[in-house]
Design goal:
The protein is mainly α. It has 6 helices and 2 strands, in the order ββαααααα. It folds into 2 domains: 30 residues, no CATH class; 154 residues, no CATH class. Helix 2 packs antiparallel against helix 4.
């Protein structure tokens, strides 16, 4: 099988390229077991990206709260460090879901009927929704309160601090439970 691919060159001239690299090297020579293991590695990579970024965010927020008590002005720089982390968590979540779907397709849903997998799947959905609906909202509310607040904003953000601590505790607990279920695979 040969695929045609037209690439646009920087000088504006289209160049027709014929290649069968993708088909021969990747699909034809890769059996289902190799593809399954590759997807598993990418699946674990997505989990590590999500868990690692969540843990880093948690530690950065702990540092932020300590600095906030000492000097509110300097603490804003620490808060900026977390502004791009939601993108990494999203990448990890997307990788986790897409590779999970791929593994289910290759195994023809072999794990789908098992209790541990159903619980794990529900926890991953809760994990993603909690990050989007709760975590993002709390982070935005904190940033807005700090940038728009007057000189004494400590009282205004005490509830945000409590909710963020609960959010991170819940996220890390969910991630740990997902790993636990994946390792022990009870029925």
């Amino acid at each position: 099988m040969v695929y045609n691919c037209t690439l646009l060159q920087p000088n504006g001239i289209n160049k027709e390229i014929l290649f069968n690299f993708y088909y021969i090297l990747i699909i034809k020579n890769m059996n289902a077991q190799t593809l399954l293991l590759t997807l598993l590695v990418l699946h674990l990579t997505g989990l590590v990206i999500m868990a690692g970024t969540t843990f880093v965010d948690f530690t950065i927020f702990k540092t932020f709260w300590k600095q906030f008590e000492l000097d509110q002005e300097k603490s804003q720089g620490i808060l900026q460090a977390t502004s791009k982390s939601s993108r990494w968590i999203g990448i990890g979540a997307a990788l986790l879901v897409l590779t999970g779907v791929g593994m289910m397709a290759i195994t023809h849903g072999a794990f789908g009927e098992q209790t541990w997998f159903r619980i794990k799947f529900a926890l991953v959905i809760i994990l993603i929704l909690n990050g989007i609906l709760v975590g993002r909202r709390l982070g935005t509310k904190l940033r807005k309160t700090i940038t728009d607040g007057d000189g004494n904003i400590s009282f205004q953000i005490s509830s945000i601090r409590t909710n963020l601590n609960l959010f991170f505790f819940f996220q890390l607990l969910l991630l740990l439970t997902v790993v636990f279920l994946s390792v022990f695979k009870f029925n």
